[in-house]
Amino acid sequence: MLKQFISHLSDKHTLKPTDRVLLAVSGGMDSMVMLELFHQGGFNIGVAHVNFQLRGEASDGDEALVKKVCEGKGIPFYKTHFATKDYAKEKGISVQMAARELRYTWFASVAKQHSYDWIATAHHLNDSIETALFNWTNASSLAGLCGIPAQHGNIIRPLLFTTRKDLEDFAHEHTVPWRKDSSNDLDVYKRNFIRHQLIPKLKELNPSLESSLQRGQRKLHGELSFLNYAFEQWKNQYVLEENAIIRIEKSGLDKLDAAAMLLYKVAEPFGFNFDVCEEVMQVLHAQAGKKFLSASHELIVDRTTVLIAQHADLLSPITIEKGQTDAFFGNWHLTLTVGEKQQPITDPHVAMVDLSHLEFPLIWRQWQAGDVFQPLGMKGHKKISDLLVDAKVSMPDKAKVTVICSGEEIVWVAGHRLDERFKLTENTKEVLILTLRPYFI
């Protein structure tokens, strides 16, 4: 097995002789065999052990065993204790999820602090198969059916080439000490049910289940690689990211059986699930403006595109005193300069107003539904919402539009249109020049 192990490390993870590897070792059979293989292979390793304090004296016994083995082999040993149940209760998550979050965060900190290049976990082929079956029962995509990835960032799984039975045989042959976790025998956990109930039934159908599914997962990995390549080609043609807004051309989603899945691959990192993407496809060509929300973003079906942007922040209005030369509102910077009458400026982000018509302090705020003003050159009033529709301003960009107000009247829809009542006239003596620019901290 040692030769297979070293070959697997070379093929899948390209470890260099000088690389330092931090091993996640619980004290169970899988991780203790991994520790022995790395040690026999002469790799530069350290061991990280987490005591989750879930099994009382048994957890302390696990820690003592791992520490003793590391001391005997001269391997650096790092440990930590977590009040896992308290953390799970505080976060409102399962104990299993809490343990996962805690250990991976801690592994990363130890690796960074002590300059380890890799973090190795002891997941093996059976773990990958069980994960794939678990994912399948939970409506996973193709990536989920591929099981556990051999590498994710600097986290590697160097035992995926072998089975639980082979690891057990190696442990007996090399008298590897290990401790049994009694929770692995409880079928109340879904993964244990798959391991103890489902897998044996499937092996009745196919005694060579592990090797068959291993070949199948290699095929799935190849198909997934090709699909990811095709997705990137589609994405380059139909998806644009600009100013933190994702724009997906509707034409790239039309008449495609896989449209919901393509949308999901774009939207999933922003918190949208596949069900939402199917709903989006049902209203793709309905009235523009339909909005879907995730915890952090909004997805908007616009006229010709589907937009994804962060939730618009609700900012408190600010006041601008007379004589003030600069003001900041969200990501906008406004400069105020007093001067004499001059030729009109065509830049929409610059407005010249009659200073004598202004009532200070000015109020700078986000526009609101129902806001009306008298657009420059018009006799009547118009809703700002209609102005933005006419200007074909997208839904996310609408949320960023602000107005400068004098008393109850809107002076300027900033960056869009001046109000007729504040324009320069032949009687204007002093001009206030307002210049709007993006501001980035």
List keywords for this structure.
five-stranded antiparallel sheet; alpha+beta; 441 residues
Q: What's the multimeric state?
A: single chain
Number of H/I helices: 14
The major beta sheet can be summarized as: 6 strands, mixed
The total beta strand count reads: 22
Structural class: alpha+beta
Give the N-to-C terminal Cα separation. Answer: 55 Å
Average pLDDT over all residues: 89
User: Could you say which overall geometry the principal axes of the C-alpha atoms support?
Assistant: elongated
Low-confidence stretches: none
Radius of gyration: 31 Å
Strand content: 15-25%
Q: How much helix is in the residues?
A: 25-40%
Strand order of the largest sheet: 3-2-1-4-6-5
Detailed description of the structure:
The chain has 441 residues and is α+β, with helices and mostly antiparallel strands. The protein contains 14 helices and 22 strands. The protein has helices at residues 2-13, 29-40, 57-73, 84-91, 95-113, 125-137, 142-145, 164-173, 190-205, 209-238, 259-267, 274-282, 384-390, 395-398; strands at 20-24, 44-51, 77-81, 118-120, 151-152, 155-156, 239-242, 245-249, 290-293, 297-301, 305-310, 318-320, 326-329, 332-339, 350-354, 362-366, 372-373, 382-383, 402-406, 409-413, 417-418, 431-438. The strands form five sheets. A six-stranded mixed sheet has the order 3-2-1-4-6-5, sandwiched between helices. Strand 19 and strand 20 (409-413) form a beta hairpin. It is elongated and about 100 Å long. It starts with a helix and ends with a strand.
